[in-house]
Amino acid sequence: MIAPGLLLIESDEALSPVYHALKWSLPDNTALIVSPVTQQPKSRGMAPGTTSWLRERTRPAGHDPE
């Protein structure tokens, strides 16, 4: 958990299987958004190590894929 109620998950699975696995693991009517994070987001107030973890897995914002 990088902040209360906020998780980052690394997966090689497509979006739908990740969404459904999370949905089925949560109590009914729990709010849920699943989205790929391909670029380094702007953030603050996250748990220590979050920025480094994201930098290792994303490209800089504004960097076009080749």
Overview of this structure, please?
By secondary structure, the chain is mostly helical. The chain is built from two helices and no strands. It has a domain at 15-57. The protein has helices spanning 15-25, 50-57. The longest helix is centred in the first third of the chain and has 11 residues, at 15-25.
Poorly predicted ranges: none
Secondary structure: number of strands: 0
Rg from Cα: 13 Å
Q: How many helical stretches? A: 2
Structural class: mainly alpha
Along the chain, the helix and strand elements come as HH
Q: What share of the residues does DSSP label as strand, in percent?
A: under 5%
Distance between the termini: 32 Å
Compute the average pLDDT.
89
Largest sheet: none
Helical proportion, percent range: 25-40%
Shape: globular
What are the salient characteristics of this protein?
66 residues; mainly alpha
Topology:
Elements: H1 15-25, H2 50-57
In short:
Helices cover 29% and strands 0% of the residues. By secondary structure, the chain is mainly alpha-helical. It is globular, with a radius of gyration of 13 Å.
